[in-house]
Amino acid sequence: MAEVHGGCADSHAGGGFPAVLRSVDDYPELPESPATVGGVDRGKLCDAVARVAVAAGRDDTLPMLTGVSIEFHPGFLRLVSTDRFRIAIHELEWDPVGISGPASVLVPARALAETSKALSGPRIEISGGPGQTVLGLTTGDQRHTMRTLDMPYAPYQRYLESTHTATALINTAALVDAIKRVSLLSPRSAQVQLTFATASARLSAGGGNEGSAKEIIGCEFDGEPLTIAFNPRYLLEGLAAARAEVVEIAMNGPTGAATVRAADRESDGERRDGLIYVLMPVRLPH
């Protein structure tokens, strides 16, 4: 038996759990979605968000780096995230409405990732733009809004046009397995070194009293032999986000930023569109 006074209660034999009801007028007004700026395939947008969000920062004292920058271009959407140690960039086609030049909004990565998982239907309408405090995503009967971050985003454009002095094509699964094995002997998983030669990549980690590990896998390498080191977790996350059978690692010496991207090609020989993952190397030990 349940007894209610100004609220509701759920009861079971021998006990009750009262809950106080509040007036519906106390519920805050939901923000209105701004004007629609375009539409995009839901699956492609959700895929891009999942792949880019991996590089977003998790330090709330640097809120700018916890977001995903969504850039609206007349011909494509670009999603960008960075935590200062890596940058994830993904472009996809969309159907803009009234977009004549580049514009962007910065959205919390966690909110965007969770919202994209909750959406259903074949197509997403995007509402928002510069100066707006809200980004809206609408599909079918669902409408989601999220607050934007009102702050400038970290400059990254120079990494899109950087030249590289060496490139390696490597089977992704073989590289992932080798990193996981070798990094077991990396102190605090600090770094894994990759030494590239004409047809091989040697992975090594550890040393000193902790022991060491080395493994050699095949690759196609173009450039002067070099040794470069990466944080193994960051490299593994980039390889997973690339979602490719073969990846291309483009480098500019042992201290310059490296670019990881899919090397897979379409049937006509064109590179398959996908993620560009820029990763800063770790300083090599002396």
Explained architecture:
Keywords: Cytoplasm, DNA replication, DNA-binding, DNA-directed DNA polymerase, Nucleotidyltransferase, Transferase. Its EC number is 2.7.7.7. The chain has 286 residues and is α+β, with helices and mostly antiparallel strands. The chain folds into two domains: 36-156, Roll (DNA Polymerase III, Chain A, domain 2), CATH 3.10.150; 162-279, DNA Polymerase III, subunit A, domain 2 (DNA Polymerase III, Chain A, domain 2). It has helices at 42-52, 109-118, 172-182, 232-242; strands at residues 7-12, 15-20, 36-41, 67-72, 77-82, 86-92, 95-96, 103-108, 123-127, 134-139, 142-147, 166-171, 192-196, 200-206, 212-218, 220-222, 226-230, 246-251, 258-262, 275-279. The longest helix is centred in the N-terminal third of the chain and has 11 residues, at 42-52.
Name given to the CATH architecture of the largest domain: Roll
Q: What percent of the residues sit in helical stretches (DSSP H or I)?
A: 10-25%
Strand order of the largest sheet: 8-4-5-6-20-19-18-12-16
Number of domains: 2
Helix count equals 4
CATH class of the largest domain: Alpha Beta
User: What is the 3D form?
Assistant: globular
Concise account of the structure shown:
The protein has 286 residues and is of the alpha+beta class. It folds into two domains: 36-156, DNA Polymerase III, Chain A, domain 2 (Roll); 162-279, DNA Polymerase III, subunit A, domain 2 (DNA Polymerase III, Chain A, domain 2, Roll).
